[in-house]
Amino acid sequence: MAAAAAAAAAAGAASAELVIGWCIFGLLLLAILAFCWIYVRKYQSQRESEVVSTITAIFSLAIALITSALLPVDIFLVSYMKNQNGTFKDWANANVSRQIEDTVLYGYYTLYSVILFCVFFWIPFVYFYYEEKDDDDTGKCTQIKTALKYTLGFVVICALLLLVGAFVPLNVPNNKNSTEWEKVKFLFEELGSSHGLAALSFSISSLTLIGMLAAITYTAYGMSALPLNLIKGTRSAAYERLENTEDIEEVEQHIQTIKAKSKDGRPLAARDKRALKQFEERLRTLRKRERHLEFIENSWWTKFCGALRPLKIIWGIFFILVALLFVISLFLSNLDKALHSAGIDSGFIIFGANLSNPLNMLLPLLQTVFPLDYILITIIIMYFIFTSMAGIRNIGIWFFWIRLYKIRRGRTRPQALLFLCMILLLIVLHTSYMIYSLAPQYVMYGSQNYLIESNITYDEHKGNSTLSVPKRCDAEAPEDQCTVTRTYLFLHKFWFFSAAYYFGNWAFLGVFLIGLIVSCCKGKKSVIEGVDEDDSDLSEDEPSVYAA
Which residue windows are transmembrane per the record (predicted)? Predict the structure, then answer.
Protein backbone atom coordinates (compact mmCIF):
# COMPACT_ATOMS: atom_id res chain seq x y z
CA MET A 1 0.00 0.00 0.00
CA ALA A 2 2.78 2.40 0.91
CA ALA A 3 4.54 1.72 -2.40
CA ALA A 4 1.32 2.25 -4.33
CA ALA A 5 0.68 5.50 -2.49
CA ALA A 6 4.21 6.69 -3.21
CA ALA A 7 3.83 5.82 -6.89
CA ALA A 8 0.52 7.67 -7.06
CA ALA A 9 2.04 10.70 -5.37
CA ALA A 10 4.95 10.67 -7.81
CA ALA A 11 2.57 10.40 -10.76
CA GLY A 12 0.51 13.27 -9.38
CA ALA A 13 3.59 15.42 -8.97
CA ALA A 14 4.67 14.59 -12.52
CA SER A 15 1.25 15.54 -13.87
CA ALA A 16 1.30 18.78 -11.90
CA GLU A 17 4.69 19.73 -13.34
CA LEU A 18 3.47 19.00 -16.87
CA VAL A 19 0.36 21.12 -16.30
CA ILE A 20 2.51 23.95 -14.96
CA GLY A 21 4.81 23.63 -17.97
CA TRP A 22 1.96 23.86 -20.47
CA CYS A 23 0.40 26.77 -18.55
CA ILE A 24 3.68 28.65 -18.74
CA PHE A 25 3.86 27.88 -22.45
CA GLY A 26 0.31 29.25 -22.88
CA LEU A 27 1.19 32.43 -21.01
CA LEU A 28 4.28 32.71 -23.18
CA LEU A 29 2.11 32.56 -26.31
CA LEU A 30 -0.07 35.39 -25.00
CA ALA A 31 3.04 37.42 -24.16
CA ILE A 32 4.40 36.81 -27.68
CA LEU A 33 1.19 38.03 -29.33
CA ALA A 34 1.13 41.14 -27.12
CA PHE A 35 4.79 41.86 -27.83
CA CYS A 36 4.33 41.48 -31.62
CA TRP A 37 1.32 43.81 -31.63
CA ILE A 38 3.15 46.51 -29.64
CA TYR A 39 6.33 46.04 -31.67
CA VAL A 40 4.65 46.43 -35.08
CA ARG A 41 2.39 49.29 -34.00
CA LYS A 42 5.41 51.11 -32.60
CA TYR A 43 7.22 51.27 -35.94
CA GLN A 44 4.46 51.41 -38.56
CA SER A 45 3.70 54.68 -40.30
CA GLN A 46 0.68 56.48 -38.89
CA ARG A 47 -0.08 58.08 -42.29
CA GLU A 48 0.23 54.88 -44.36
CA SER A 49 -1.08 52.32 -41.91
CA GLU A 50 -2.77 49.36 -43.62
CA VAL A 51 -4.82 46.71 -41.83
CA VAL A 52 -3.69 43.75 -43.97
CA SER A 53 0.03 44.59 -43.77
CA THR A 54 -0.23 45.16 -40.01
CA ILE A 55 -1.96 41.82 -39.41
CA THR A 56 0.52 40.07 -41.72
CA ALA A 57 3.50 41.55 -39.89
CA ILE A 58 2.12 40.68 -36.44
CA PHE A 59 1.18 37.14 -37.49
CA SER A 60 4.49 36.32 -39.21
CA LEU A 61 6.58 37.65 -36.34
CA ALA A 62 4.42 35.78 -33.81
CA ILE A 63 4.83 32.50 -35.74
CA ALA A 64 8.59 32.90 -35.70
CA LEU A 65 8.68 33.56 -31.95
CA ILE A 66 6.28 30.69 -31.21
CA THR A 67 8.52 28.37 -33.23
CA SER A 68 11.46 29.47 -31.12
CA ALA A 69 9.37 28.88 -27.99
CA LEU A 70 9.10 25.21 -28.98
CA LEU A 71 12.85 24.79 -28.43
CA PRO A 72 12.74 24.87 -24.61
CA VAL A 73 9.53 22.77 -24.68
CA ASP A 74 11.28 20.14 -26.79
CA ILE A 75 14.29 20.10 -24.46
CA PHE A 76 12.11 19.96 -21.36
CA LEU A 77 10.08 16.98 -22.61
CA VAL A 78 13.09 14.82 -23.53
CA SER A 79 14.72 15.68 -20.19
CA TYR A 80 11.55 15.07 -18.20
CA MET A 81 11.29 11.45 -19.37
CA LYS A 82 14.40 10.46 -17.40
CA ASN A 83 15.49 10.59 -13.78
CA GLN A 84 18.74 12.19 -12.72
CA ASN A 85 20.21 8.74 -12.02
CA GLY A 86 19.97 7.90 -15.72
CA THR A 87 16.89 5.63 -15.64
CA PHE A 88 13.63 6.25 -17.46
CA LYS A 89 10.62 7.22 -15.38
CA ASP A 90 7.94 4.59 -14.86
CA TRP A 91 5.44 6.25 -17.19
CA ALA A 92 8.02 6.91 -19.92
CA ASN A 93 7.74 3.62 -21.78
CA ALA A 94 8.50 3.27 -25.48
CA ASN A 95 4.97 4.14 -26.62
CA VAL A 96 4.65 7.22 -24.41
CA SER A 97 8.09 8.47 -25.43
CA ARG A 98 7.20 8.01 -29.07
CA GLN A 99 3.93 9.87 -28.64
CA ILE A 100 5.70 12.81 -26.99
CA GLU A 101 8.31 12.92 -29.74
CA ASP A 102 5.62 12.75 -32.44
CA THR A 103 3.64 15.56 -30.78
CA VAL A 104 6.65 17.87 -30.83
CA LEU A 105 7.50 16.78 -34.37
CA TYR A 106 3.98 17.51 -35.62
CA GLY A 107 4.17 20.88 -33.86
CA TYR A 108 7.30 21.66 -35.86
CA TYR A 109 5.63 20.38 -39.04
CA THR A 110 2.72 22.76 -38.54
CA LEU A 111 4.73 25.84 -37.60
CA TYR A 112 7.39 25.32 -40.26
CA SER A 113 4.69 24.80 -42.90
CA VAL A 114 3.08 28.08 -41.85
CA ILE A 115 6.49 29.77 -42.07
CA LEU A 116 6.96 28.47 -45.61
CA PHE A 117 3.49 29.77 -46.48
CA CYS A 118 4.31 33.22 -45.06
CA VAL A 119 7.77 33.52 -46.62
CA PHE A 120 6.98 32.15 -50.08
CA PHE A 121 3.39 33.26 -50.59
CA TRP A 122 1.59 35.55 -48.17
CA ILE A 123 4.26 38.16 -47.35
CA PRO A 124 5.39 38.52 -51.01
CA PHE A 125 1.75 38.77 -52.13
CA VAL A 126 0.92 41.52 -49.62
CA TYR A 127 4.17 43.35 -50.45
CA PHE A 128 3.56 43.37 -54.22
CA TYR A 129 -0.10 44.24 -53.65
CA TYR A 130 0.86 47.44 -51.84
CA GLU A 131 3.59 48.20 -54.39
CA GLU A 132 0.88 48.19 -57.07
CA LYS A 133 -1.42 50.21 -54.81
CA ASP A 134 0.97 53.16 -55.04
CA ASP A 135 -0.18 53.54 -58.65
CA ASP A 136 -3.54 55.31 -58.46
CA ASP A 137 -4.58 54.21 -61.95
CA THR A 138 -4.77 50.50 -61.10
CA GLY A 139 -7.89 48.80 -59.77
CA LYS A 140 -8.25 46.10 -57.14
CA CYS A 141 -8.41 43.23 -59.63
CA THR A 142 -5.32 44.46 -61.47
CA GLN A 143 -3.43 44.80 -58.18
CA ILE A 144 -4.33 41.24 -57.16
CA LYS A 145 -3.41 39.79 -60.56
CA THR A 146 -0.07 41.57 -60.67
CA ALA A 147 0.75 40.57 -57.07
CA LEU A 148 -0.12 36.94 -57.81
CA LYS A 149 2.06 37.01 -60.94
CA TYR A 150 5.12 38.14 -58.99
CA THR A 151 4.32 35.83 -56.05
CA LEU A 152 4.29 32.84 -58.39
CA GLY A 153 8.07 33.07 -58.64
CA PHE A 154 8.39 32.58 -54.86
CA VAL A 155 6.01 29.62 -55.01
CA VAL A 156 8.18 28.00 -57.70
CA ILE A 157 11.28 28.47 -55.53
CA CYS A 158 9.51 26.85 -52.56
CA ALA A 159 8.42 23.90 -54.71
CA LEU A 160 11.98 23.41 -55.96
CA LEU A 161 13.35 23.44 -52.41
CA LEU A 162 10.79 20.86 -51.31
CA LEU A 163 11.58 18.61 -54.28
CA VAL A 164 15.35 18.84 -53.75
CA GLY A 165 15.00 18.11 -50.05
CA ALA A 166 12.59 15.26 -50.64
CA PHE A 167 14.44 13.35 -53.34
CA VAL A 168 18.13 14.21 -53.53
CA PRO A 169 19.28 12.94 -50.08
CA LEU A 170 17.38 9.65 -50.27
CA ASN A 171 18.97 6.33 -51.15
CA VAL A 172 18.38 4.70 -54.52
CA PRO A 173 17.09 1.10 -54.94
CA ASN A 174 19.71 -1.57 -54.36
CA ASN A 175 18.62 -3.48 -57.47
CA LYS A 176 20.66 -2.12 -60.37
CA ASN A 177 18.26 -3.69 -62.90
CA SER A 178 15.33 -1.59 -61.68
CA THR A 179 13.44 0.36 -64.30
CA GLU A 180 13.11 4.14 -64.19
CA TRP A 181 9.48 3.80 -63.07
CA GLU A 182 10.51 1.51 -60.18
CA LYS A 183 13.12 4.05 -59.10
CA VAL A 184 10.56 6.88 -59.13
CA LYS A 185 8.06 4.67 -57.27
CA PHE A 186 10.75 3.88 -54.67
CA LEU A 187 11.42 7.58 -54.13
CA PHE A 188 7.73 8.30 -53.55
CA GLU A 189 7.47 5.39 -51.12
CA GLU A 190 10.48 6.68 -49.22
CA LEU A 191 9.01 10.18 -49.19
CA GLY A 192 5.78 8.84 -47.72
CA SER A 193 7.55 6.75 -45.11
CA SER A 194 9.55 9.74 -43.85
CA HIS A 195 6.43 11.97 -43.71
CA GLY A 196 8.27 14.59 -45.77
CA LEU A 197 10.75 15.32 -42.96
CA ALA A 198 13.67 15.65 -45.36
CA ALA A 199 11.76 17.97 -47.71
CA LEU A 200 10.59 20.25 -44.93
CA SER A 201 13.96 20.17 -43.19
CA PHE A 202 15.77 21.14 -46.40
CA SER A 203 13.41 24.06 -47.04
CA ILE A 204 13.63 25.35 -43.46
CA SER A 205 17.42 24.89 -43.45
CA SER A 206 17.59 26.96 -46.64
CA LEU A 207 15.62 29.74 -44.93
CA THR A 208 17.81 29.38 -41.84
CA LEU A 209 20.87 29.82 -44.06
CA ILE A 210 19.42 33.11 -45.33
CA GLY A 211 18.64 33.99 -41.71
CA MET A 212 22.30 33.33 -40.90
CA LEU A 213 23.34 35.92 -43.50
CA ALA A 214 20.83 38.39 -42.01
CA ALA A 215 22.14 37.65 -38.50
CA ILE A 216 25.73 38.22 -39.65
CA THR A 217 24.69 41.53 -41.23
CA TYR A 218 22.30 42.92 -38.63
CA THR A 219 22.50 40.99 -35.34
CA ALA A 220 26.28 40.95 -35.09
CA TYR A 221 26.45 44.71 -35.63
CA GLY A 222 23.43 45.36 -33.41
CA MET A 223 25.02 43.47 -30.51
CA SER A 224 27.72 46.15 -30.40
CA ALA A 225 25.69 49.17 -31.59
CA LEU A 226 22.75 48.81 -29.16
CA PRO A 227 24.70 48.81 -25.87
CA LEU A 228 27.17 51.49 -26.96
CA ASN A 229 24.36 53.76 -28.16
CA LEU A 230 22.67 53.36 -24.77
CA ILE A 231 25.90 54.23 -23.00
CA LYS A 232 26.84 57.20 -25.20
CA GLY A 233 23.31 58.56 -25.53
CA THR A 234 22.29 61.26 -28.03
CA ARG A 235 23.43 64.81 -28.57
CA SER A 236 21.75 67.69 -26.76
CA ALA A 237 18.70 69.03 -28.58
CA ALA A 238 19.50 72.60 -27.48
CA TYR A 239 23.08 72.37 -28.78
CA GLU A 240 21.92 70.86 -32.08
CA ARG A 241 19.33 73.60 -32.46
CA LEU A 242 22.02 76.25 -32.00
CA GLU A 243 24.19 74.61 -34.67
CA ASN A 244 21.19 74.31 -36.98
CA THR A 245 20.38 78.04 -36.58
CA GLU A 246 23.95 78.91 -37.59
CA ASP A 247 23.66 76.65 -40.65
CA ILE A 248 20.37 78.33 -41.65
CA GLU A 249 21.97 81.78 -41.45
CA GLU A 250 24.92 80.62 -43.53
CA VAL A 251 22.71 79.09 -46.24
CA GLU A 252 20.49 82.20 -46.36
CA GLN A 253 23.58 84.35 -46.93
CA HIS A 254 24.63 82.13 -49.85
CA ILE A 255 21.13 82.39 -51.36
CA GLN A 256 21.16 86.20 -51.02
CA THR A 257 24.61 86.38 -52.62
CA ILE A 258 23.46 84.36 -55.65
CA LYS A 259 20.19 86.32 -56.03
CA ALA A 260 22.14 89.60 -55.86
CA LYS A 261 23.76 88.72 -59.18
CA SER A 262 20.41 89.07 -60.97
CA LYS A 263 19.24 92.36 -59.42
CA ASP A 264 20.19 94.35 -62.50
CA GLY A 265 18.03 92.10 -64.70
CA ARG A 266 20.76 89.82 -65.94
CA PRO A 267 19.80 86.11 -66.00
CA LEU A 268 21.67 83.75 -63.72
CA ALA A 269 24.24 81.43 -65.19
CA ALA A 270 23.42 77.71 -65.31
CA ARG A 271 26.01 77.06 -62.61
CA ASP A 272 24.42 79.65 -60.30
CA LYS A 273 20.94 78.22 -60.93
CA ARG A 274 22.09 74.76 -59.89
CA ALA A 275 23.78 76.16 -56.78
CA LEU A 276 20.67 78.19 -55.91
CA LYS A 277 18.46 75.14 -56.21
CA GLN A 278 20.78 73.11 -53.99
CA PHE A 279 20.89 75.85 -51.33
CA GLU A 280 17.08 76.18 -51.36
CA GLU A 281 16.72 72.40 -50.87
CA ARG A 282 19.24 72.59 -48.07
CA LEU A 283 17.34 75.47 -46.46
CA ARG A 284 14.06 73.51 -46.52
CA THR A 285 15.77 70.57 -44.83
CA LEU A 286 17.34 72.79 -42.18
CA ARG A 287 14.01 74.45 -41.39
CA LYS A 288 12.40 71.06 -41.09
CA ARG A 289 15.17 70.10 -38.67
CA GLU A 290 14.48 73.32 -36.77
CA ARG A 291 10.82 72.34 -36.27
CA HIS A 292 11.80 68.85 -35.10
CA LEU A 293 14.47 70.13 -32.73
CA GLU A 294 12.17 72.77 -31.23
CA PHE A 295 9.42 70.22 -30.70
CA ILE A 296 11.74 67.61 -29.15
CA GLU A 297 13.53 70.15 -26.94
CA ASN A 298 10.24 71.23 -25.35
CA SER A 299 8.60 67.78 -25.21
CA TRP A 300 7.92 65.94 -21.98
CA TRP A 301 9.37 62.75 -23.50
CA THR A 302 12.84 64.34 -23.78
CA LYS A 303 12.73 65.36 -20.13
CA PHE A 304 11.57 61.88 -19.14
CA CYS A 305 14.38 60.23 -21.13
CA GLY A 306 16.86 62.58 -19.53
CA ALA A 307 15.73 61.42 -16.10
CA LEU A 308 16.25 57.79 -17.20
CA ARG A 309 19.78 58.45 -18.48
CA PRO A 310 21.52 56.59 -15.60
CA LEU A 311 19.25 53.59 -16.15
CA LYS A 312 20.13 53.55 -19.87
CA ILE A 313 23.82 53.49 -19.01
CA ILE A 314 23.27 50.54 -16.67
CA TRP A 315 21.31 48.70 -19.37
CA GLY A 316 24.04 49.47 -21.90
CA ILE A 317 26.72 48.02 -19.63
CA PHE A 318 24.55 44.95 -19.00
CA PHE A 319 23.95 44.42 -22.74
CA ILE A 320 27.63 44.71 -23.63
CA LEU A 321 28.49 42.17 -20.91
CA VAL A 322 25.83 39.80 -22.27
CA ALA A 323 27.22 40.32 -25.78
CA LEU A 324 30.73 39.48 -24.60
CA LEU A 325 29.37 36.37 -22.83
CA PHE A 326 27.73 35.23 -26.09
CA VAL A 327 30.82 35.97 -28.14
CA ILE A 328 33.12 34.11 -25.75
CA SER A 329 30.76 31.13 -25.62
CA LEU A 330 30.40 31.08 -29.41
CA PHE A 331 34.16 31.34 -29.90
CA LEU A 332 34.89 28.49 -27.49
CA SER A 333 32.18 26.33 -29.08
CA ASN A 334 33.50 26.95 -32.59
CA LEU A 335 37.06 26.39 -31.43
CA ASP A 336 35.97 23.08 -29.90
CA LYS A 337 34.47 22.08 -33.24
CA ALA A 338 37.60 23.09 -35.10
CA LEU A 339 39.84 21.03 -32.81
CA HIS A 340 37.73 18.01 -31.85
CA SER A 341 34.86 17.61 -34.34
CA ALA A 342 34.42 14.73 -36.78
CA GLY A 343 35.18 17.05 -39.72
CA ILE A 344 33.34 18.94 -42.41
CA ASP A 345 31.72 15.79 -43.85
CA SER A 346 29.78 15.33 -40.60
CA GLY A 347 28.82 18.99 -40.27
CA PHE A 348 31.47 19.47 -37.55
CA ILE A 349 29.58 17.32 -35.04
CA ILE A 350 31.26 16.99 -31.64
CA PHE A 351 31.43 13.71 -29.74
CA GLY A 352 31.36 15.11 -26.22
CA ALA A 353 32.30 18.59 -25.01
CA ASN A 354 36.05 19.11 -24.77
CA LEU A 355 36.10 22.89 -24.28
CA SER A 356 33.32 23.99 -21.97
CA ASN A 357 31.80 27.42 -22.44
CA PRO A 358 29.84 29.42 -19.84
CA LEU A 359 26.38 28.99 -21.37
CA ASN A 360 26.83 25.28 -22.03
CA MET A 361 27.53 24.82 -18.32
CA LEU A 362 24.86 27.24 -17.10
CA LEU A 363 21.80 25.96 -18.99
CA PRO A 364 21.88 22.35 -17.66
CA LEU A 365 22.24 23.73 -14.13
CA LEU A 366 19.27 26.06 -14.56
CA GLN A 367 17.14 23.23 -15.94
CA THR A 368 17.20 21.53 -12.55
CA VAL A 369 15.18 24.48 -11.17
CA PHE A 370 12.08 24.64 -13.33
CA PRO A 371 11.52 26.95 -15.28
CA LEU A 372 14.77 28.94 -15.11
CA ASP A 373 16.04 27.54 -18.40
CA TYR A 374 12.80 28.66 -20.10
CA ILE A 375 13.40 32.15 -18.80
CA LEU A 376 17.03 32.21 -19.96
CA ILE A 377 16.17 30.88 -23.44
CA THR A 378 13.40 33.49 -23.74
CA ILE A 379 15.84 36.22 -22.70
CA ILE A 380 18.38 35.01 -25.27
CA ILE A 381 15.78 35.03 -28.06
CA MET A 382 14.47 38.48 -27.10
CA TYR A 383 18.05 39.74 -26.88
CA PHE A 384 18.67 38.56 -30.44
CA ILE A 385 15.44 40.29 -31.54
CA PHE A 386 16.35 43.63 -29.95
CA THR A 387 19.94 43.58 -31.19
CA SER A 388 18.76 42.59 -34.67
CA MET A 389 16.29 45.47 -34.66
CA ALA A 390 19.05 47.83 -33.54
CA GLY A 391 21.21 46.63 -36.42
CA ILE A 392 18.39 47.09 -38.94
CA ARG A 393 17.66 50.58 -37.63
CA ASN A 394 21.31 51.60 -37.90
CA ILE A 395 22.02 49.96 -41.27
CA GLY A 396 18.62 50.05 -42.99
CA ILE A 397 17.23 47.59 -45.53
CA TRP A 398 19.51 47.29 -48.55
CA PHE A 399 19.53 45.41 -51.84
CA PHE A 400 23.26 45.10 -52.44
CA TRP A 401 24.41 48.77 -52.65
CA ILE A 402 20.88 50.24 -53.02
CA ARG A 403 19.09 51.36 -49.87
CA LEU A 404 15.44 50.32 -50.08
CA TYR A 405 13.96 51.44 -46.77
CA LYS A 406 14.77 52.97 -43.43
CA ILE A 407 13.15 51.84 -40.20
CA ARG A 408 11.87 54.67 -37.99
CA ARG A 409 9.47 54.69 -35.08
CA GLY A 410 6.02 55.67 -36.29
CA ARG A 411 7.25 56.30 -39.85
CA THR A 412 7.87 52.88 -41.39
CA ARG A 413 5.95 52.25 -44.60
CA PRO A 414 3.89 49.03 -45.00
CA GLN A 415 6.38 47.57 -47.50
CA ALA A 416 9.31 48.30 -45.19
CA LEU A 417 7.39 46.78 -42.29
CA LEU A 418 6.90 43.56 -44.27
CA PHE A 419 10.60 43.49 -45.12
CA LEU A 420 11.41 44.06 -41.46
CA CYS A 421 9.24 41.18 -40.27
CA MET A 422 10.59 38.91 -43.02
CA ILE A 423 14.16 39.60 -41.90
CA LEU A 424 13.29 39.15 -38.24
CA LEU A 425 11.44 35.91 -39.05
CA LEU A 426 14.53 34.52 -40.77
CA ILE A 427 16.83 35.69 -37.96
CA VAL A 428 14.60 34.08 -35.32
CA LEU A 429 14.76 30.83 -37.31
CA HIS A 430 18.54 31.03 -37.12
CA THR A 431 18.49 31.59 -33.35
CA SER A 432 17.80 27.87 -32.83
CA TYR A 433 21.16 27.02 -34.38
CA MET A 434 22.83 29.93 -32.57
CA ILE A 435 21.62 28.53 -29.26
CA TYR A 436 22.84 25.08 -30.35
CA SER A 437 26.25 26.63 -31.10
CA LEU A 438 26.31 28.22 -27.65
CA ALA A 439 25.10 25.08 -25.80
CA PRO A 440 25.28 22.01 -28.08
CA GLN A 441 24.77 19.35 -25.41
CA TYR A 442 21.83 21.20 -23.87
CA VAL A 443 20.01 21.59 -27.21
CA MET A 444 20.74 18.00 -28.22
CA TYR A 445 19.90 16.10 -25.00
CA GLY A 446 18.87 18.59 -22.32
CA SER A 447 19.76 17.31 -18.84
CA GLN A 448 19.48 13.59 -19.69
CA ASN A 449 21.84 11.06 -18.13
CA TYR A 450 22.42 7.43 -19.06
CA LEU A 451 23.92 4.49 -17.15
CA ILE A 452 27.38 3.09 -17.89
CA GLU A 453 29.06 0.11 -16.31
CA SER A 454 31.99 1.00 -14.08
CA ASN A 455 34.37 -1.53 -12.51
CA ILE A 456 35.22 -0.95 -8.85
CA THR A 457 38.13 -2.75 -7.17
CA TYR A 458 38.03 -3.57 -3.44
CA ASP A 459 41.54 -3.72 -1.92
CA GLU A 460 40.49 -5.55 1.23
CA HIS A 461 39.03 -8.53 -0.59
CA LYS A 462 41.03 -8.07 -3.83
CA GLY A 463 37.85 -8.37 -5.85
CA ASN A 464 36.08 -6.44 -8.56
CA SER A 465 32.45 -5.44 -8.91
CA THR A 466 30.44 -3.68 -11.57
CA LEU A 467 28.41 -0.61 -10.72
CA SER A 468 26.08 1.41 -12.96
CA VAL A 469 26.86 5.11 -12.71
CA PRO A 470 25.05 7.97 -14.48
CA LYS A 471 26.79 9.96 -17.20
CA ARG A 472 25.65 13.04 -19.10
CA CYS A 473 24.22 12.16 -22.53
CA ASP A 474 26.37 13.09 -25.51
CA ALA A 475 26.85 12.04 -29.13
CA GLU A 476 28.50 8.76 -28.03
CA ALA A 477 25.51 7.66 -25.92
CA PRO A 478 23.45 4.62 -27.03
CA GLU A 479 20.36 5.56 -29.06
CA ASP A 480 18.02 3.62 -26.75
CA GLN A 481 19.34 5.40 -23.65
CA CYS A 482 19.21 9.04 -24.75
CA THR A 483 16.45 10.75 -26.73
CA VAL A 484 17.56 13.39 -29.21
CA THR A 485 15.44 16.55 -29.46
CA ARG A 486 13.38 17.06 -32.60
CA THR A 487 15.07 20.46 -33.00
CA TYR A 488 18.44 18.79 -33.42
CA LEU A 489 17.07 16.45 -36.09
CA PHE A 490 15.79 19.41 -38.09
CA LEU A 491 19.05 21.31 -37.69
CA HIS A 492 21.33 18.41 -38.68
CA LYS A 493 19.38 16.54 -41.33
CA PHE A 494 21.90 17.76 -43.94
CA TRP A 495 25.60 17.98 -43.08
CA PHE A 496 26.39 20.74 -45.58
CA PHE A 497 24.01 23.14 -43.84
CA SER A 498 25.72 22.44 -40.52
CA ALA A 499 29.09 23.10 -42.15
CA ALA A 500 27.79 26.40 -43.56
CA TYR A 501 26.48 27.39 -40.10
CA TYR A 502 29.91 26.63 -38.63
CA PHE A 503 31.71 28.98 -41.02
CA GLY A 504 28.89 31.50 -40.57
CA ASN A 505 29.62 31.60 -36.83
CA TRP A 506 33.20 32.67 -37.56
CA ALA A 507 31.87 35.39 -39.86
CA PHE A 508 29.43 36.44 -37.10
CA LEU A 509 32.33 36.86 -34.66
CA GLY A 510 34.31 38.87 -37.22
CA VAL A 511 31.43 41.24 -37.99
CA PHE A 512 30.79 41.71 -34.26
CA LEU A 513 34.40 42.81 -33.70
CA ILE A 514 34.27 45.16 -36.70
CA GLY A 515 30.94 46.57 -35.48
CA LEU A 516 32.37 47.05 -31.99
CA ILE A 517 35.29 49.07 -33.38
CA VAL A 518 33.00 51.15 -35.62
CA SER A 519 30.53 51.81 -32.80
CA CYS A 520 33.34 52.89 -30.48
CA CYS A 521 34.73 55.31 -33.08
CA LYS A 522 31.38 56.86 -33.98
CA GLY A 523 30.22 59.88 -32.04
CA LYS A 524 26.87 60.43 -30.38
CA LYS A 525 23.79 60.08 -32.55
CA SER A 526 21.69 63.10 -33.42
CA VAL A 527 18.50 63.40 -31.41
CA ILE A 528 16.66 63.56 -34.77
CA GLU A 529 18.94 61.28 -36.77
CA GLY A 530 17.67 60.84 -40.32
CA VAL A 531 15.72 64.09 -40.66
CA ASP A 532 18.52 65.72 -42.64
CA GLU A 533 18.45 62.94 -45.24
CA ASP A 534 16.19 62.35 -48.22
CA ASP A 535 13.87 59.79 -46.70
CA SER A 536 10.37 59.16 -47.95
CA ASP A 537 9.41 57.73 -44.58
CA LEU A 538 9.81 61.09 -42.88
CA SER A 539 6.76 63.25 -42.49
CA GLU A 540 6.54 66.97 -43.15
CA ASP A 541 3.87 67.17 -40.48
CA GLU A 542 4.44 67.76 -36.80
CA PRO A 543 7.31 65.54 -35.65
CA SER A 544 6.95 62.71 -33.21
CA VAL A 545 8.55 62.76 -29.79
CA TYR A 546 9.86 59.27 -30.53
CA ALA A 547 11.91 60.43 -33.52
CA ALA A 548 15.23 59.81 -31.87
Answer: 25-40, 52-73, 106-130, 150-170, 197-221, 313-332, 374-404, 416-436, 494-518
